[in-house]
Amino acid sequence: MRLCIFSGTFNPIHKAHLKMAEYVLSNYGFDKILFIPAYKPPHKNYDTTMCAHRFNMVKLAIKNNPHFEISDIEYKNEGKSYSYLTALELYKQYNVDGKIHFIIGTDAFKQIETWYETEKFKKLVDFIVFIRENEKVNLDYLKDKGYNFEIAQMPFTDISSTDLRERIATGKPIDNLVTKEVEDYIHKHGLYKNT
To answer: Full-prediction pTM beyond 0.90?
Structure first.
């Protein structure tokens, strides 16, 4: 199986996330894109009351694509969500052809050398890097250090979870930024009202 993983806080998952996954699926020939919501992201402050909601929203957002799947691997652990440990476990769970691929944005990729067990992690996965529009970025120094990656050529979609939370908190519409199921879930549970 050709496997690509998409880890993230997904707080909340939005249409740009889905476009990225769809682009990777159609351009790289993967059998499966595995969405892995982080239980406790090591590089971010987190609200544990949101853990189940974030997981449920990802599940709703991807349910109509048979090549998308959600994993609770980091929820079962309930510790900090380290991508190295997750990748090790996934190699045990799946019969992977070649290496697992890992979707990542430039902001996170620039910090990759600070990640847990980064020297071991870079040997386990190949990265697919998404660049923000008009961002001038030179990542060759990471290739020189043994991080194997490709730059995704998808046009940038300017949606961020931070902006979404602010829009919800101030009562602005989000209907074209998230799927209908995710929007309904947010309203039903009154999420992000006090952001």
So the answer is: yes
